[in-house]
């Protein structure tokens, strides 16, 4: 046994030289453990020594000779695409036949051999005459620099005893990519570099023209690099980011065209997520995953699906899905590994998949409802079979209004069918089906759905009917209202409503009205009998149960006191006291929007046991609004369906402060008080129950508040006096104790429980003087009295004139004349006007431009100009009148109409001794009066009583001014002329048209002193 | 900007429908002016840089002024404006047809570098069909210019430019090619408009028999031949 051990040991020694020393020691160890008899020992020792002899020879050979392991045939090549230096060499060792480990130390220099930039030890197991390879990737593009490579070796095998020495360096091998470049003046490297986002990239350019000024840009940004050599510049970009799929442009420009490179930056490839597989038919597996973000390159990563049990793999055609054909060898378990790979990375994810557990059936098809009635429907569908014996579990769901209302599970092999019951008439439903693998449920299939609508049925409930009864001329007019039936009760589309009016006093008379839907009211005029009215709703199937309303022919008791109530968030809570024990129910009615007419009647039916309720807004109706007064009427329904008014209630959901103030009338203003009234203010249409009014009074003088007022501050911090009227029905107020001749401001505003009205419309009032009313009491009657006197005077002006200031006495009416006629000379007569030859008539143009009227003129009126008086020489003028005497001018201002009617006029020769016109002294009023008096007297004096047949009143007029009242400002020289204004006849009553026209003018004839005064 | 793009898209759609209708029915419009107007409008549409060049520049990141300066048409890519004006109608249509074949190849090569919804290829095909129809029409027309002897053309159209080895140079090269394409279509449109004017001025002349020969030769996109060197294209 021990000998066998030695032999084995020896064999081992021969095979592995590296274990020689260790095994030799072991040999000694084994040797010294021997304790057998001496004979056997001698034999063994001899054998051992014989065996050891060749071993010793072998050992002396290994250690004594140096290993000739210098690398040979070192070749350096450049891979521009990968920017790699590729080294290839051999180690020639004819003495060794086995593999053993070696270390190769490689040095790389750049630009010159002494500039070592890389030193690496490469360890590998070397066979005899093996060609070795090693690559080195340069961060600097290899085209931009010359590289030098050399190496040396060392055996690093345990079988080789120490010392281990490096071999000599090989000679430098040069790698110069610039040799292959052309003669272009500018080169940029690396070409089309593919980098991963976040990595660092070095770009360089080589300029052959040293004089050229090169500018380099990354995208549009000018950048500056680092000079590596005389004509080489490098640009290092750290943490590069993805800009666009077509790459990031880097370019340099010298004298010629730009040269550049495109850095194709790839986003980091993500690991596939949610990797899972399933089958729809147990024939094909479909594996899906989420590939994550796109790497952003045109070159997409590849996805490979590998199954370890079968050792098969497939290259996926999609980046998120892969199909796998299930083999026929009943393989159930699959161990899939999905490998995503791009230039930079390889990502993988694995799952263990049981085929039976991953069955996701295809969606069923041909889902149809059949035999659909009002309450039942049968639905059928089909499924894709899985295998020959497998069944599917299908789930049938019935949805109404979007909610699942029924759900049934049915086992199906090929065709599915199910009867759905308890359906509602005229209702749209949705049936949908999905299926799962029955043997092992994993996932439902996609749903398929189908809508259907059940058939109609007759309405199941009587319409809710209410009435509004008004009496016109003692005859009740009934307006019937009904609520549309809910969908649940209508069971179809309501087509019309039948209204049957039965006269209870005449049972044989029935009146039937058909009201087409969707009307919800109708009006019926009845007589004073009692009626029962039935309302039914009809759809295409039939009528609903009837709803009955009884109408009495006489108005009921409407004199019910109105109560008040307050609304809450829930609505209007109210209660009532039943009047009879036989009430069949109660009805509360109100108007939806009471502020708008006509009233939209609402009502609520309540059972006979209800004595309270809360009226809340119906969702489909107008909601109760704050600040609106709602009036409720509670009716009790008798056994004969007759309604009796129980109570009236008014309330606000929430009271608000009044939105506006009453329009206040102010009256009875005195120096100490005034009265305010606002009787037109409607309290019932306000935004709350009016509890009273506040009367605000502000005085400019800031006096104290009067009795009953209290001081208060307004929002503008002004002080004000406030009086509170507690009675909402009091709509007048007398403000007393005011100061005379003082300014006040007042405001009347109502208030509710929510507050008072707006305080922004104060009106101003100023109290009058204390005695002003007394003066008014005196002055007004006086003014009235004077006015009456004036009217009387006007009406009796003629009478007054005759009495107070009579005209020139009428010679015919003169008593003297009658006396003379009667006593002395009955032949004496009054000179006729025809006997008078006027010498001149002066026509004066009034400034108003009045039309002149001429009598016996020699010039046409159109020849008159301006306001100058026109003179008509009736007597010889200066040229044809030789007489020396001055002329006499007459002007008729006024005289007795009777006289004028007779056409009296006269001419009196004037002697030369007659006094001249005394213009100068006439400038003063006194002189004027004197002169007038004197002329008048002279005229009277010059006319003998017996001869005078015409009395003239001569009045001196100012020759310079048309305005007789204004004093002359520039009195002319006195002339030997007496001016008279000739009296013209102005008829008071009827006159000829010409005269009438003259009468509207100041028809005066005035002799022009310049022409006629001599 | 968006409205203009929409208008262009609509116009392009309308034109393509017209052209597809023509191609589908296999019949050419017999109305010279209608066809000429259609050609002019197509040329106007295709000369618009916003249809191809601008999207390409945006997509490739060539919008910097330095690169824009070097995104220029290379001599020999397209017939020069002078050369086109000198051509007879027959030769003009022939040259146009040949150049469109080149353009189609380039567009096909550029497909992945262009925005996805580009209608350029369809437009070029439609334009080629209409050129074919015009050549057919002129062969039987009374156009006086058609009677003129065929002048020497600008030479055969070149092969598509060899793609440079560097992606960057290829970008610039394609950019210059697209610029030349738009310039060429603009010139073609001007020449076609010149036809309309001359047609209006000299309707009394007889048709050109020589055109018949040319029209028979003019089929959409024949084999591309090599172009002789020509003068500098206008910048």
From TrEMBL, chain A:
One of its GO terms (molecular function) is growth factor binding. Residues 995-1005 have a biased composition (Polar residues). Residues 992-1014 are annotated as: Disordered. Keywords: Disulfide bond, Glycoprotein, Membrane, Receptor, Repeat, Signal, Transmembrane, Transmembrane helix. It is found in: Membrane. It is a single-pass type I membrane protein. InterPro entries: FN3_dom, FN3_sf, Hematopoietin_rcpt_Gp130_CS, Ig-like_fold, LIF-R-like_Ig-like, LIFR_D2, Type1_Cytokine_Rcpt_Type2. The chain crosses the membrane at residues 774-795. The keyword Repeat applies. GO terms for cellular component: apical plasma membrane; oncostatin-M receptor complex. PROSITE patterns: FN3 (PS50853), HEMATOPO_REC_L_F2 (PS01353). Gene3D superfamilies: Immunoglobulins. Residues 363-457, 462-558, 658-770 form the Fibronectin type-III domain. The keyword Transmembrane applies. One of its GO terms (biological process) is positive regulation of cell population proliferation. It holds the Pfam family LIFR_D4. Belongs to the type I cytokine receptor family. Type 2 subfamily. This is Oncostatin M receptor.
Automatic annotation (TrEMBL), chain B:
Residues 140-168, 195-235 are annotated as: Disordered. One of its GO terms (molecular function) is growth factor activity. One of its GO terms (cellular component) is extracellular space. Its main location: secreted. It is found in: Secreted. Residues 201-219 have a biased composition (Basic residues). Gene3D superfamilies: 1.20.1250.10. Pfam families: LIF_OSM. It comes from the Eukaryota. Keywords: Cytokine, Disulfide bond, Secreted, Signal. GO terms for biological process: immune response; negative regulation of hormone secretion; oncostatin-M-mediated signaling pathway; positive regulation of cell population proliferation; positive regulation of inflammatory response; positive regulation of interleukin-17 production; positive regulation of MAPK cascade; positive regulation of phosphatidylinositol 3-kinase/protein kinase B signal transduction. Residues 151-164 have a biased composition (Pro residues). Residues 1-26 form the signal peptide. InterPro entries: 4_helix_cytokine-like_core (IPR009079), Leukemia_IF/oncostatin (IPR001581), Leukemia_IF/oncostatin_CS (IPR019827), OSM (IPR039578). Belongs to the LIF/OSM family. This is Oncostatin M.
């Amino acid at each position: 046994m021990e000998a066998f051990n030695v032999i084995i040991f020896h064999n081992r020694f021969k095979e592995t030289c590296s274990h020689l020393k260790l095994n030799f020691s072991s040999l000694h160890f084994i040797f010294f453990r021997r304790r057998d008899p001496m004979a056997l020992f001698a034999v063994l020792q001899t054998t051992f020594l014989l065996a050891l002899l060749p071993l010793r020879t072998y050992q002396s050979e290994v250690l004594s000779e140096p290993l000739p392991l210098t690398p040979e045939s070192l070749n350096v090549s450049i891979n521009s695409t990968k920017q790699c230096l590729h080294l290839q060499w051999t180690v020639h060792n004819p003495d060794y036949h086995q593999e053993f480990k070696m270390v190769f130390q490689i040095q790389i220099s750049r630009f010159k051999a002494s500039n070592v930039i890389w030193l690496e030890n490469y360890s590998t197991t070397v066979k005899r005459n093996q060609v070795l390879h090693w690559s080195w990737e340069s961060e600097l593009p290899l085209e931009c620099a010359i590289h030098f490579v050399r190496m040396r070796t060392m055996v690093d095998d345990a079988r080789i005893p120490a010392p281990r020495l490096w071999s000599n360096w090989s000679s430098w091998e040069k790698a110069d990519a610039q040799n292959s470049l052309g003669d272009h003046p500018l080169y940029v490297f690396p070409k089309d570099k593919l980098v991963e986002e976040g990595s660092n990239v070095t770009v360089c350019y080589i300029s052959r023209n040293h004089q050229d000024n090169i500018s380099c840009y990354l995208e549009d940004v000018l950048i500056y690099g680092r000079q590596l050599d005389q004509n080489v510049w490098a640009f290092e970009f750290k943490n590069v980011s993805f800009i666009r799929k077509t790459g990031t442009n880097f370019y340099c420009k010298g004298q010629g065209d730009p040269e550049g490179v495109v850095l194709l930056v790839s986003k980091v490839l993500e690991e596939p997520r949610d990797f899972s597989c399933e089958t729809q038919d147990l024939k094909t597996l479909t594996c899906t995953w989420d590939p994550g973000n796109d790497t952003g390159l045109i070159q997409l990563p590849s996805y490979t699906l590998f199954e370890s049990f079968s050792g098969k793999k497939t290259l996926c055609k999609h980046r998120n899905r892969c199909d796998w054909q299930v083999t026929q060898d009943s393989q159930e378990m699959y161990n899939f590994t999905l490998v995503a790979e791009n230039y930079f990375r390889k990502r993988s994810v694995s799952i263990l998949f049981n085929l039976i557990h991953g069955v996701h059936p295809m969606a069923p098809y041909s889902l149809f409802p059949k035999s659909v009635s009002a309450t039942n429907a049968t639905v059928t569908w089909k499924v894709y079979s899985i295998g020959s014996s497998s069944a599917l579990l299908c789930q049938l769901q019935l949805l109404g209004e979007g909610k699942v209302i029924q759900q049934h599970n049915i086992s199906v092999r090929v065709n599915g069918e199910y009867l759905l019951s308890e359906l509602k008439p005229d209702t749209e439903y949705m049936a949908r089906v999905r299926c799962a693998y029955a043997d092992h449920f994993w996932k439902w299939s996609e749903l398929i759905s189908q809508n259907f609508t059940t058939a109609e049925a007759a309405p199941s409930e009587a319409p809710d009917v209410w009435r509004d009864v008004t009496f016109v001329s003692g005859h009740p007019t009934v307006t019937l209202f009904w609520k549309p039936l809910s969908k649940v009760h209508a069971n179809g589309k309501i087509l019309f409503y039948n209204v049957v009016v039965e006269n209870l006093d005449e049972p044989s008379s029935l009146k039937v009205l058909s009201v087409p839907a969707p009307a919800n009211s109708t009006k019926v005029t009845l007589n004073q009998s009692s009626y029962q009215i039935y309302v039914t709703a009809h759809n295409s199937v039939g009528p609903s149960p009837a709803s009955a309303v009884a109408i009495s022919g006489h108005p009921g008791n409407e004199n019910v006191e109105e109560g008040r109530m307050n609304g809450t968030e829930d609505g209007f809570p109210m209660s009532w006291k039943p009047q009879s024990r036989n009430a069949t129910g109660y009805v509360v009615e109100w108007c939806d929007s009471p502020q708008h007419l006509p009233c939209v009647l609402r009502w609520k039916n309540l059972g006979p046991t209800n004595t309270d309720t809360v009226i809340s807004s119906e969702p489909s109706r107008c909601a109760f609004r704050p600040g609106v007064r709602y009036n409720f009427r509670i009716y009790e329904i008798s056994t004969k369906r007759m309604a009796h008014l129980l109570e009236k209630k008014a309330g606000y959901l929430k009271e608000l402060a009044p939105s506006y103030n009453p329009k206040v009338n102010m009256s009875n203003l005195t120096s100490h008080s005034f009265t305010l009234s606002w009787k037109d203010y409607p309290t019932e249409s306000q935004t709350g129950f009016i509890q009273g009014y506040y009367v605000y009074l502000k005085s400019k003088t800031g006096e104290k508040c009067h009795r009953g007022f209290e001081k208060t501050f307004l929002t503008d911090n002004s002080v004000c006096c406030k009086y509170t009227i507690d009675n909402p029905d009091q709509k007048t107020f007398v403000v007393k104790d005011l100061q005379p001749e003082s300014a006040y401001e007042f405001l009347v505003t109502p208030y509710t429980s929510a507050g008072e009205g707006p305080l922004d419309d104060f009106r101003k009032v100023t109290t009058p003087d204390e005695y002003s009313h007394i003066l008014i009491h005196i002055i007004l009657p006086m003014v009235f009295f004077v006015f009456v006197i004036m009217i009387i005077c006007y009406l009796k002006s003629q009478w007054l004139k005759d009495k107070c200031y009579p005209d020139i006495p009428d010679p015919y009416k003169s008593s003297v004349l009658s006396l003379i006629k009667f006593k002395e000379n009955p032949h004496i007569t009054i000179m006729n006007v025809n006997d008078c030859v006027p010498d001149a008539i002066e026509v004066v143009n009034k400034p108003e431009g009045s039309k002149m009227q001429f009598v016996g003129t020699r010039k046409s009126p159109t020849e008159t100009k301006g306001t100058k008086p026109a003179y008509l020489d009736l007597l010889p003028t200066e040229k044809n009148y030789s007489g020396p005497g001055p002329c006499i001018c007459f002007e008729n201002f006024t005289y007795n109409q009777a006289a004028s009617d007779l056409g009296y006029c006269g001419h009196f020769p004037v002697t030369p001794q007659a006094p001249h016109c005394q213009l100068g002294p006439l400038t003063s009023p006194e002189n004027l009066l004197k002169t007038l008096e004197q002329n008048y007297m002279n005229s009277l004096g010059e006319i003998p009583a017996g001869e005078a047949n015409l009395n003239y009143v001569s009045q001196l007029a100012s020759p310079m001014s048309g305005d007789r009242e204004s004093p002359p400002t520039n009195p002319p020289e006195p002339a030997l002329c007496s001016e008279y204004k000739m009296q013209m006849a102005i008829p008071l009553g009827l006159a000829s048209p010409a005269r009438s026209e003259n009468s509207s003018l100041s028809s005066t004839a005035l002799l022009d002193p310049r022409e006629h005064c001599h | 900007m968006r409205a203009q793009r929409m208008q262009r898209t609509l116009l392009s759609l309308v034109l393509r429908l017209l052209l597809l209708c023509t191609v589908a029915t296999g019949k050419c419009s017999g109305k010279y002016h209608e066809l000429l107007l259609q050609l002019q409008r197509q040329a106007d549409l295709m000369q618009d840089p916003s249809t191809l060049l601008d999207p390409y520049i945006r997509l490739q990141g060539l919008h910097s002024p330095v690169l824009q300066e070097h995104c220029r048409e290379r001599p020999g890519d397209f017939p020069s404006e002078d050369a086109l004006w000198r051509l007879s109608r027959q030769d003009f249509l022939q040259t146009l047809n040949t150049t469109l074949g080149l353009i189609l190849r380039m567009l096909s090569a550029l497909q992945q570098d262009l925005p996805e919804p580009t209608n350029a290829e369809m437009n070029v095909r439609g334009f080629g069909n209409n050129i074919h129809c015009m050549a057919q029409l002129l062969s039987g027309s009374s156009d006086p210019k058609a009677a003129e002897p065929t002048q020497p053309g600008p030479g055969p159209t070149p092969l598509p430019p060899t793609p440079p080895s560097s992606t960057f140079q290829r970008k610039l090269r394609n950019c210059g090619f697209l610029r030349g394409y738009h310039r060429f279509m603009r010139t073609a449109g001007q020449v076609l408009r010149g036809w309309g004017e001359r047609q209006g001025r000299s309707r009394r002349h007889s048709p050109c028999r020589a055109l018949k020969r040319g029209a028979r030769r003019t089929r959409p996109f024949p084999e591309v031949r090599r172009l002789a060197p020509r003068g500098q294209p206008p910048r």
